# Entry
Amino acid sequence: MPFLTPVPDISATRPAFCGILANTLLSIVPGISGAGPSPEATLLTPALDAELILQGAITSVPAKPNTPTGCPTPAVITRAMMDLVGITPVFVNAGLARPPAVPCIDVYGAAGNDPRTSDAVPLAAALYERGKLVGQYLSGASDLLVLGESVPGGTTTALCVLRALGYPARVSSSFVDNPVPLKEEICKAALARLPAGSAGDPLAVVRCTGDPMMPVAAGITAGYSGTLILAGGTQMLAVCAILKALGVRLPPVATTCYVRDDRSANAPDLAARIGVQVLYVDPGFEDAGHAGLARYCLGEVKEGMGAGGAMALAYLQGHSPAAIREKIAGTVGAYS
Amino acid sequence: MPFLTPVPDISATRPAFCGILANTLLSIVPGISGAGPSPEATLLTPALDAELILQGAITSVPAKPNTPTGCPTPAVITRAMMDLVGITPVFVNAGLARPPAVPCIDVYGAAGNDPRTSDAVPLAAALYERGKLVGQYLSGASDLLVLGESVPGGTTTALCVLRALGYPARVSSSFVDNPVPLKEEICKAALARLPAGSAGDPLAVVRCTGDPMMPVAAGITAGYSGTLILAGGTQMLAVCAILKALGVRLPPVATTCYVRDDRSANAPDLAARIGVQVLYVDPGFEDAGHAGLARYCLGEVKEGMGAGGAMALAYLQGHSPAAIREKIAGTVGAYS
# Structure
């Protein structure tokens, strides 16, 4: 299989990677998120991912960068790619339950609330404006920006936002068995709170039913002047739906073939409806010689912390699929 | 008078400006700081400076960017210079009493405590490490970094740290009449708390008697790989004293001639003792046609938010003294 499909016409002399970190309190609903050893612990995952990528190790708490079943966190893949292409990434704290132990560009948001019971992101409009300022700053620092995210529970807020904006969406999951009935139940309850006519006001939709990553990602896209790639699966497609409704440019999305091939979701159909180009990376983890990576091919984890986009970036910067696989396997091995 | 003395051999294709924001609770001691309309209000000044520079206006609270006597805040000068050279600056929140309304790189510190009664910066060592990570990130984004600061009350913490490290320091002030006896009294009380032998451990000195800007500025200097200019007066000389004691390179300092000419302080002597080169900017405000700017020449405000370094940067980027003065006067006029 080709490594990247399609191969876009993108070249960059000063590429950068930015990861947006956020929480939604939906991630502590049992069964919603596989991004952590327990529902409560999913709140820590974005900040620990950032620690791992920036420092090479998680030092603030005793935690392993693996799922309970031994699958490496996608942040390890992102770390490996940053090392390979020689980029120091930057993280944006869009709204975390607890402060991280590494520096982040902070937009002074807050963790997203449960959209079934209250407005999820009361600051949505302000976070969009602050995202624009971040995008303007990053414009001076790079000519290509790969923008990833880490939001446990974020596929469920993506489902809410996509449905509220009128798309027949089915979203992906970090679980092999996507908890579709639970997500549908939450989505139904969240959408029942949506004021009539909200579909025409994407930031109102985010305020009611989204998560803090969304307005910040949309704002960065609006404020950034260079070439942009949104790195993520159905969560980034929700950001694209917001951008389209706002009348902002639609950058391409890069994600893994595991998201494309998730039959419980409809990423390719959704992308076509929104009108966004998706670049799919097939990293060939079945041949990487690591049991945990091979589980990605069985539908576990699939994507996260911009791992798909980070691999696409390494490929676009001239690294061979074999060198990319080798670097990832070596990095994963060092944490095992 | 020449605009910049001496003119360093510095050229850059990708210059950047970073402003470090912090509070010390010393600024609410009446008479210590002129950086705000009241002692309590000085706690807000760094974040409002950042708002002014990034947005062109203070929108989060009703506040004027002037001293009570009508002197423009130095942040207006920095804003004018960013506009002139076409740079979007970035701010680092090293420890503020309240969260700012604009995005900052946050190192998750806290406002500095009163060094007379408790450790001023308990996280000093961690902030130094996090500063290094910020410096590493900024290395990929620029080849010249002008690093400024905004810390009301910071000349008093600078006095404490310089004295603790063995220098016969006298520090500058934003007041025309430097409150030297009050600063000496605070310094004496703070140094009485210093454990014996601390002079050999600069981060212990910062922990006991400094402010959060200091370890972050030192860390950024240690982590940054390009050309660096520390933009500030006696506060940046305190950072240089820390760097020297840590064995880290000593970058040049850029500040205004108003700091050099402050007879209540000894900036040139101090710089010579530390062994750091200081670039002095004489912006010629007596001829700028603005009464508030002319007050700088009488010794009011003098420096702040890297204003001296920002003017030096504009000059090094090829802008004439006349163009620099005109831009500042025009920007100040727009806020009057």
